[in-house]
Amino acid sequence: MQRQSMVSPVWRRPSSSIVCRFFDGDVDLVVIGAGYQGLSTALHAARAGLSVQVIEAGEIGAGASGLNGGQVIPGLKQDPETLLAVFGADLGERLTKFSAETADAVFNLIASEGLDVEHARTGWVQAAHTETAMEAAVRRNRQWRAQGADVALLNQAEVGLLTGADGYRGGFLDRRAGVVNPLALVHELARIATEAGAGLVLKDGVASLRKVGAGWEVTTASGRSIRARKVLVATNAYSGALVPKLAESLVWLHSFQIATEPLPAGLDFILPGGQAVSDSRRIVVYYRRSPDGRLVLGGRGPMREPRSVEDWAHLERALQRLFPMLASLRIDHRWFGRVAMTPDHLPHLHEPEPGLVMVAGCQGRGIGLMTALGAPLARYLADGDPDVLPLPITPLRRIPLHRFRRLGVAGHIAWYRLLDGLER
After folding, report:
1. pTM value?
2. Which of 10, 12, 23, 49 has the fewest CB atoms within 10 Å around its CB?
């Protein structure tokens, strides 16, 4: 079976080295998890003068930060009018402004730091496969244009020219978006965070987290121990029992991906402008070209871990539906990772005890969202002012009947896949 369990075989690691170290004595901040959120926060906190220790259970990029499709999409699942209705004028406007600038945070960081990360700010297409989806694209376009965003509505001919795919009615183009090598980005974040003074330990997960006086004692699986004034738990879809209720507040799903062999000559009409694409189906399919010219396509997979190449067959069928001319092309790579969703499709910020902070739930916007959250999270962890946060601090709440979530989600996926098939 062609599968890479730790990192995608498509994305290149930068050649620069990352120096790991574990601090002796107390620190200002322990960050648990070395993904985009954890490393971006560690970077900004270290540059603000805090002593920071990052602790990661695996390797850099072993989680969603190294396994995603590399799409950098600004905004959230909900559009500005919904955010204003849910959060009110002040916080709704703050969250809208923040979410509008998440792609800026990524591409500006790459440029200002000279990061060794393949990237292209060529835009993102949300392709509509039904008239109902096209109506949603019209609403999204109207709301973001009212915010001054560089977006556009696409008709059927225009979406066909941008994607090269069959079957779309039109779509929404967000020119603020783009693509990156996600594995290179998380490696480069680790490099500049450690160069800024943050400590980093890999392959030694946190075994216990205990309140001690006004701070926290963090102990790793190998027996290392460190005390910190504050702790950021940046584990998202890989959250376990370390923080009560955290894992039970999330629904995690498997995101499966395939990569073709490099596209042969004569197929440059497929994604000619280099945009990333997500479609409007209930079970979303997303795709882009990789830096070495492959078509990389992803979507939801089984709730269990894959057993054979047949577990990626639904993606091969989607590839052939969209691009019939690629039916004979070899699939060179197959891989999967875990992502976390929240019931309301919004990122959630929690502080169940003073000094214990966490954000979870990306909903397909993780690269921009979690990278951009690093700066306000670092400021909040430094001075405790909630007004610097773009999200409200909310209580941790278990999802009812959470232990049955796999059956429920698997049933929903099967049902939605059937409905999507009927809407060809």
Report:
1. 0.92
2. 49
